[in-house]
Design a protein that fits this description.
Elements (H helix, E strand, L loop, with lengths): L2 H15 L7 E5 L16 E7 L2 H11 L8 E8 L2 E9 L13 E7 L8 H12 L5 H5 L6 H17 L2 H24 L5 H14 L2 H4 L6 H19 L17 H14 L8 H16 L3 H21 L4 H25 L9 H15 L1
Parallel strand pairs: 1-2
Antiparallel strand pairs: 2-5, 3-4, 3-5
Helix pairs in contact: 3-6, 5-6, 10-12, 11-12, 13-14
Length: 374
Amino acid sequence: MSTDVLMDELSHIYLSLNLDPSQPLTIMPAVCLKGTHTTRHNPAHALLISSINSQDELGHIHTILSRIYPADHGITLFTTTYSCMNIEPHLTIADLAKSLEFQIGTHRYLFIPPLDRAKSFIEFQEIIAHLRAPEGCPWDREQTHQSLRNNLLEEAYETLETLDRGDVTAMQEEFGDLLLQIVLHAQIASESGEFNMEDVIAGIYHKLIRRHPHVFGEQEVDGVKHVLQNWEKIKEKERAEKGIPEKGILDGVPLVLPSLTQAQELQDRAARVGFDWPEIQPVWDKVLEELDEVKHAKTKDEIEKELGDLLFAVVNLIRWHKVDSESALRATNQKFRRRFKYIEKAARSLGREMHSMTLDEMDGYWNEAKRLEK
């Protein structure tokens, strides 16, 4: 299709839809979406997909759009055959899944009206920038990377809590709170000329491509273990290219991680290079060995040391069962909270103080709480 014909058709589409030329419109040829998994545009802007030449292309477009737009989101389909243009209004995203006839020499345009601005990452960045602007919020303007440090940590833990509960609604909210922290840090850095959100995204974009040569390149891997081993080799090469002094396998494990998470990550990384038992029985034996050493420890220092070794061995057992130790312990903590609160509630219903109850009485209510959870 020539540029002149394309411009004529676009002019016709603008007039037919009565589009406001002052409002943003993304125009994207259907071929740009081939092999992609996202729409690659700002959903707060109207979208016009041009030159859809087959039902297969339309089916792929439907798959992509369905991940962002609701099924009942209104759309308009234009069919052009040489000099003739037909408009199929009153369609929805769901209608794209239906079979539509394509004739030789036919081109189709698909117009998708914008979603609410609140669904756009770009618009979200603008909100954060506005909060930091002179006319924005005094609290947000005062924040620094250091002042927000605890906020980032708290939001991360709150997000983990929703993951542990499997609460999808709360998960969505907490991911938003966590994203707020990331975008706010990027905005602060942008204002001081350090880096911006686009730099952050570009950095992780290129890193993912570099570290997945088996996906984006021609390298072949044999299972997850080989992927992780190759990941470590690529990281070593990256450090060498940047002139960073050679690090050990475990040096990349942050010291600020919670102890259980840190122990499991240390063991995971050591296992990637073969420092691991070939089967689980020696792992069990090590746990029992460390437990016996705790029993026979004499001094407080020895007991502390042996208990640490026991915990480390238990974390290894947890790792072998492919369970996250931090999540497992958090779940047990929550279970303890629920059952203990049940005992407290029972004591109040009896008009008694907990310290006046015997251990057998409290244990009875504890077991009652356990039965109610089943």
